[in-house]
Write a structure and sequence with these properties.
The complex is a heterodimer of chains A (259) and B (437).
Chain A (H helix, E strand, L loop, with lengths): L1 E10 L2 E11 L4 E5 L6 H9 L5 E8 L2 E2 L5 H7 L1 E4 L6 E5 H15 L7 H14 L5 H4 L1 E2 L5 H15 L3 E5 L7 H13 L6 E6 L3 H5 L4 E6 L2 E6 L2 H21 L9
Parallel strand pairs in A: 3-10, 3-11, 6-9, 9-10
Antiparallel strand pairs in A: 1-2, 1-4, 4-5, 7-8, 11-12
Chain B lengths: L9 H4 L10 H17 L15 H4 L4 E2 L10 H8 L6 E5 L2 E2 L13 E5 H5 L20 H9 L4 E5 L9 E7 L6 E3 L2 E6 L4 E10 L5 E11 L4 E9 L5 E10 L4 E8 L4 E10 L5 E8 L6 E10 L5 E10 L4 E10 L7 E10 L5 E10 L5 E9 L3 H8 L5 H17 L5 H14 L5
Parallel strand pairs in B: 1-7, 2-6, 5-8, 6-9, 7-10, 8-10, 9-11, 10-12, 11-13, 12-14, 13-15, 14-16, 15-17, 16-18, 17-19, 18-20, 19-21
Antiparallel strand pairs in B: 2-3, 4-5
Helix pairs in contact in B: 2-6, 7-8, 8-9
Classes of the chains: A alpha/beta (259), B alpha/beta (437).
Chain lengths: 259, 437
């Protein structure tokens, strides 16, 4: 589904991604871990189409050249980014926003738009999954939401837009243990044969709930090590430094992340 | 003082036009108004109140006063589309002349007088003179003086003590100059007796692509405990000029609010002057201005706190596109003895193009102690983070931009309490942003 080859990204002359290689197949959950500044969020943003980066390399999504597409076209094609810091938009109702988004992607996918009542029924059903109060729909997008509410609102959008590839950028950060459980249960319910997830996280915590098929370690703009779910446990125990040291010793052999 | 004069037309002649049905007692005042212009000239950029609005484009057009009976192409259905029918009394003026056949003055509640001003003026100076906003012979600037000299008609609204009028009173000013540039000079007077309540909606519009000038003055006097909500939709043709003065005097415990929606005109200026003359009076002034292409929208405000314990709020928002130019020139005066004054002022602007410009200028003059006075101004562009957020959810760049612009303007639209008018304004604003949606 997703094939990344030698992806580089620069911003303000600084090279943040320095040759990322990654393959994710449909139905798989991949975790990307690594210390601050490793380039994890940049990877997520570059995949979603955020402007301002100088990007080289290749990203294929369902055979299409993802890097050539606008952010909205990527969304229509099935890419979804759950933001690390969801944006507050005063004056734009949450329900209006999500419905406009859904109908935009439905149009692009050749489906009929949903009427307000049908949309409401769908939204309420998805909100139950995330134990969200209906009042969230009538508020402005993320305005005055707590950290945990913002993250739930991201996963609500994902549940409604039904992407093929969900990139979750530190969705666990800022969540207390109860909220983490709710969000993780929601995400598990959204696991499907045709849907891949790229879970970006600092901590193993989230991976106790969402058991990944593969775990990748990023450092200095590259994926330096890949393994199964046990790699996350190892990282939690020994820290990133040991992994990075080990990787340094391995060089120049490039560790390939493969699905 | 620098004198500025008009190049041609009625603004250059300083003579009363021949004709018109004016009672003798008005002649002196009209001549005196022209005398005032001869002495003071037109405002220039050196005047603090006109610092950002040049008048060259207006003064070079040879405007002539409109004759009665012109511009009668307007039908009731066009009128309803332009200005809505809010169900209450409605006065319609064509090129500044009263159009009785398009107006509705029947079924007025007891205590309410709504008529055209000329009918009152014909009754002699005592009908309204003593209660007018300004002392006679005093003019704010040349346009206000010309309004006094050239006005043919306008609305006259009188609320007797304790009268509550539920239906909004609509004033519609429509211009259709035909072939040559015309100026209309409507003059309206609202006298709200003690404890009375009313809502007034002014709409200004005109025939497409026509060059005309609306030079309008509305005087509002609120006696003790009166409550008046005022709305104004300035939807003039983009080739037109609109110069207006809203002059308000408030008594003790009175409440006045004004909401301006400025959409049209090549140069549109809306000046509000509020004198808080009685204790504990309150005033709220809102404005939304949306110049685009080559439009210029000037908002000049004076809130004069002359009595203790009064509250004033100003909240103006600008959305500027193309070569659009906006002005927020907001002055708050707190006179000696006006203790316990609570005055605030907020101005926010969204610039949608690199060429759009806004001058925002708070002017606070405080001569009393125990005063709470705040002001804030902001000028920004579309939030790129929010734009990316919307696009990442599949909303096109153009739609996302439209959503964000409307969200910015909406804050002011939502402050319109009058429901049918709010829906109408929402439609006008949305159409205006059509290029972005």
């Amino acid at each position: 589904m997703l094939t990344i080859k030698n992806l580089h990204a620069k911003i303000d002359g600084r090279e943040i991604l320095q040759g990322v290689d990654l393959r994710v197949a449909a139905g798989e959950v991949h975790a990307v871990m690594g210390p601050n500044g490793a380039g994890k969020s940049t990877l997520a943003n570059v995949l979603a189409g955020r402007e301002g980066y100088e990007v080289t390399g290749q990203v294929r999504f369902d055979g299409e050249d993802l890097l050539a597409m606008s952010p909205e076209d990527r969304a229509a094609a099935g890419v979804f980014l759950a933001f690390q810091h969801p944006v507050e938009i005063p004056g734009v109702g949450n329900m209006y926003f999500i419905r406009t988004a859904l109908n935009s992607v439905r149009r692009q996918r050749g489906l009929d738009e949903l009427e307000a009542m049908d949309f409401l029924a769908l939204a309420e059903q998805r909100m139950q999954l995330l134990e969200m109060d209906k009042a969230f729909l009538s508020r402005s997008v993320n305005e005055g939401f707590s950290g945990g509410e913002k993250k739930r609102n991201e996963i609500l959008q994902m549940a409604i837009l039904e992407p093929k590839l969900a990139i979750l950028d530190e969705t666990d950060s800022g969540l207390d243990i109860d909220a983490l459980r709710v969000v993780a249960n929601g995400l598990n319910a959204l696991r499907a044969a045709g849907r891949a997830m790229l879970v970006i996280t600092h901590h193993q915590r989230l991976l106790d709930y969402i058991v990944p098929d593969r775990v990748h370690v990023m450092a200095a703009g590259r994926i330096v090590r890949s393994g199964d779910k046990d790699l996350a446990v190892e990282l939690e125990e020994y820290g990133y430094t040991s992994v990075e040291k080990q990787t340094a010793a391995d060089r120049p052999t490039r560790v390939r992340a493969s699905a | 003082m620098t004198m500025a004069t008009a190049a041609a037309g009625v603004f250059s002649r300083l003579e009363l036009p021949v004709g018109g049905d004016h009672p003798g007692w008005r002649t002196d005042a009209r001549s005196a108004a022209l005398g005032w212009v001869a002495e003071h000239g037109f405002p220039t950029l050196k005047d603090e109140d006109w610092k950002y609005t040049g008048l060259g484009a207006i003064l070079q057009v040879p405007f002539e006063p409109a004759a009665p009976g012109t511009g009668h192409g307007l039908t009731l259905s066009t009128l309803d589309t332009l200005a809505l029918d809010l169900g209450g009394p409605r006065l319609v003026f064509l090129n500044g002349h009263f159009a009785a056949e398009l107006s509705r003055l029947t079924g007025l509640p007891d205590g309410l007088t709504v008529t055209n001003l000329a009918a009152v003026v014909a009754g002699g100076p005592d009908r309204f003179g003593p209660r007018s906003v300004r002392p006679p012979g005093q003019h704010q600037h040349a346009f206000a003086a010309f309004n006094d000299a050239l006005t043919e008609d306008g609305a006259y609204i009188h609320l007797a003590a304790g009268t509550t009028v539920a239906e909004p009173i609509q004033l519609v000013f429509f211009s259709d100059p035909g072939g040559s540039p015309l100026v209309s000079s409507p003059r309206s007077v609202v006298l709200a007796g003690p404890g009375s309540r009313a809502t007034i909606v002014e709409t200004y519009a005109g025939a497409p692509d026509k060059v005309y000038c609306t030079n309008t003055v509305t005087d509002v006097v609120l006696e003790d405990g009166a409550r008046v909500e005022h709305y104004k939709v300035q939807d003039e043709t983009e080739a037109a000029f609109h110069i207006s003065t809203l002059d308000v005097r408030q008594g003790r415990d009175s409440f006045f609010s004004s909401h301006l929606i400025a959409l049209g005109a090549a140069i549109g200026r809306h000046e509000v002057r509020v004198l808080l003359a009685g204790d504990a009076a309150q005033v709220n002034l809102d404005g939304l201005y949306m110049p685009q292409r080559d439009q210029h929208h000037d908002n000049t405000i004076l809130v004069d706190h002359a009595a203790p314990g009064c509250t004033s709020h100003q909240f103006y928002t600008g959305v500027l596109d193309g070569n659009g130019r906006g002005v927020f020139n907001g002055r708050i005066m707190v006179r000696p003895g006006a203790d316990g004054t609570d005055a605030n002022q907020k101005n926010k602007n969204l610039l949608l193009s690199d060429r759009a410009e806004v001058d925002t200028r708070p002017r606070l003059e405080i001569y009393a102690d125990d005063v709470k006075c705040t002001h804030g101004a902001a000028v920004g562009q579309i939030d790129e983070e929010a734009l990316f957020y919307l696009r990442s959810r599949g909303i096109s760049h153009q739609s996302a931009r439209g959503v964000l612009i409307y969200a910015f303007a909406q804050e002011l639209v939502e402050r319109i309490d009058l429901e049918p008018l709010r829906a109408h304004v929402k439609m006008l604003v949305t159409n205006r942003l059509g290029g972005h949606r």
